[in-house]
Amino acid sequence: MKLSNLMLAILLASVAHGARAADSIVEIKKFAFEPKEITVAPGTKVVWINRDETPHQIKASDGSFVSKAMDTDDRQEQVFAKEGDFGYVCTLHPFMTGIVHVHK
What we know:
Layout: H1 3-18, E1 24-29, E2 32-34, E3 37-40, E4 44-50, E5 58-60, E6 75-80, E7 84-90, E8 93-102
């Protein structure tokens, strides 16, 4: 292996081991969560972004998190450390529901 190829291999290996899972985005549009269901690995941060002109508030079904009332373009972040299925609802519009599946 040439020196430059070896250096490239070392660099790629270090990036792969130090990389953090990418954030997962859920957009709130037209009074719906898009996507309605997502699957992520443990340790992933899920970010909800309100794209509506109406406020929304997100609350976990198990009460583990609740957002403030989110205006247009506001964000709510939640890291999911444990495996499981985590349902949530917009407390201001209870017909809006979603679920985060957390699995390895």
